[in-house]
Each structure stands twice: as C-alpha cells, then as structure tokens.
Amino acid sequence: MSRIEAARAILAANDRGGYTVPTNRLYPFQWNWDSAFVAMGWATFDFDRAWREIERLLEGQWEDGLVPQIVFHAPSEDYFPGPAVWGIARTPPTSGIPQPPVLATAARFVLERHGEDGIARARAIYPKLIANHLWWQHARDPDDTGLVATLHPWETGMDNSPAWDAALERVPTETQTEIRRRDTGHVDAAFRPRGVEYQRFIHLVDLFRGTGWDAVRMLQLSPFKVADVGTNAILLRAERDLLALAERFGTAEERDTIASRIARKETVIAGLWDEPLGHYLTRDLIGGGLIPVRTSAGFLPLFAGLHDHAAALAERIDAWRRRGIGLVPSTDPDAASFEPQRYWRGPVWAVVNWMIARGLREAGLDATADSVASETRRLIGDAGFSEYFNPIDSAGIGGGTFSWTAAIDLLLGEEAQR
Ligand code: GLC
To answer: Would you say the pTM of this structure is higher than 0.85?
Structure first.
C-alpha cells in the first residue's frame, strides 16, 4: 500500500457514516476540530465526504450557535465523560463546551478546491458558521474586548498544556461525578494527563452543568478563565476565512461586522506578544498577566496573519532543529514543565504543525515552513499515523491510526509535490 493509500484507509476505517472518529476505541465520537482537519483531508480525494464531515458536525450545533467539542452520534462505553456526565438533553447528545474554531477555515478550504460544484453545499453551511462566530462573541467576549475567553482546558484542544497549570490551581479537585477514566485503559497512563488534572476537568464540567449550560453564568462563575493565544489566533484566522465566504454568500452588513471583528482582534492579539520571552502567550483573565510558558500555541498568531514577530518565531524553530529536536514540540524543551511523552506537555502534534507551517509560509519564511512540514512527514513516515510524537526520540505515542494525523499527511504530501 502506498503512503497515500494508507492515509486514506485510516480515514475510511474511522468513518462511522459521514463522520470520522479520531481513532477507534480511545475517541469513539465526533470531535470538533479533529473533524475540521479531517474534512480538509477528505477533500484531497472525496469532496462529498468532506462536506458530510462538516454537515454532520453541525448536526450538533446549538440554537445559540455553539458548535460543541464532541457530538455523541452513537453510544459507546469506551470514553469518559460520556453524555450522562454532560447532562445535555439534545439529539444527538453533545458536550457543552467549544473547541478551537477551525471550521470556517475548513469550509473555505473545501470550497476552494471543489470550485463551482461545491457552492450549494457551502451556501447551506454558511449561516451556521456565521451563527457560530456570533456565539464566540456573545458567549465568550460579551464586553467586546476582542479576546474570547476559554473556561475549560478541553476547549483549547491542548488539554494538559503547562500553560494551564497555574490557572487550574484555582479549580477545586472535588467532583460530584464519579471519575471513571477510560483513556488509561487504552494507552499508558504516563502518556496521558494526570489524575489531579482530571479531577479539576470534571469539577468544571459539574459546575457548568449546574448552571444548565447557561453561557452568561458559566463566564461569571468559572474559576478557570484564560484568553488562550491558540484559540484566539485560530478564531482570527477563521474570521478571515469566514469573510472570504461572506464575499460570496453574505450581506454587506455581515462583511462589515466580520471585518470590524478582524481589525479589533489583530490589535489585541498583537498585545499577547511578550518581549522578555520572545513569544506570544496566553493571558490569565482572573489573575491578570500573561502566563510565562512558551507553547506551540504561541506560534499560531502566524497562522492568524500576524507577521510582526515572524522572524523571531522562525529563529526559535530553526534553533530547535539545529539541536536535533523534533519539530514542533508543544512545550518549549527548555521549560521546567517540558515532558517529551506526556500529551500536550512536550509531544509534537501534526495538526499544530500544519497550521504553523502555513503561517510561516504566508509570512514568507519558506525555509522554516519547509522544515516544519518535512519534519512532520518524517515523524509520520518513521512512526506511523500516531496521535502525537516524542520530539526527543521520535517515537509515535497515544492512539495509532489517528484520523487527523492521516489527514495532515495527505495535505502535506500534496504540498510537497508542488
Ligand atoms: C484530546 C486532544 C484534543 C482532541 C481529542 C480527540 O482530547 O487533546 O485536542 O481533539 O483528543 O482527538
């Protein structure tokens, strides 16, 4: 089987009928940002299936515009916390928090490749994307600061990043829900978030469920509240892609609204740059201040089109490469909190690399973009379509046959041909 066939076979094997599970057993439902990347992967060989991925994710959208982190299309005992813990009576059941909003970027990507034949599908999706971006504004930035708030580490997709450690300390470890982790039955506990982090994750779910998933009360009550540089950068990128869709499908008023959100976000995200650390950082919205941990999320303003510090960011990546560190570690390898095997505390994630490489390329830093892209391909080529990779010894870790890793391999494989 060729490499392309192998990647396609993973998407096909993880297809559960119009939606793709991240991997068998460990993640048996539809995840929000996974599906956005996976839709782009499907678009390299099956447009209908690419649109289906997005449409099925949007089956989980709430009336207020939230596109949830997980859509529980079919029951499974393999994952905790399942629908009963979230306590959200919807069909299909969903979780009650968002994930990084890559969706408008994915929809634009699929449409541009599909061309005229994709217009009807994109037109039908467009109002739902508009509603989703309004949700971010109303639910997570009601004061119009330009930065959206994150209330749960799971919302960032980077569950146990050391950037959350100090802010998470404020979250009590008591839970109303009995914790029955399933992940550590599927993969080694040493590679997963720690038990105490899990207690805090579930404490927050219990708290939010207690508000009846009321967006206003969640924002008021949450003891964890940050302006994540990753989520905000991805949202700014998505706003630009939504504007491109609005040029075709929207009204002048919609375009103006999106354009003014973009202008505001450009200014405030630029303010997440920290000169002493030479990196973009997350802001702690309860304690104030920028959180002094360099993570891979801090490269994502490049993907958002902010190029002021592109050369400095590229130089950091180049320096890691010269030291033989696998690109791009999710946490700075020189940080005290760096752990090369533990999930978002060090390992390399292909989807993040794809966004960083794209941002570098758009900033005109082709050589560094090429190293990030070719490193990603090397890791996948050597270790397989793993969930994530150890930047020190290049081992593949977590779930094998991972959908978004396969999707990124298809995208980077094509880009390498050009
Ligand atoms: C983990 C990751 C998250 C991803 C999900 C499914 O929770 O941290 O980013 O979306 O798994 O792959």
So the answer is: yes
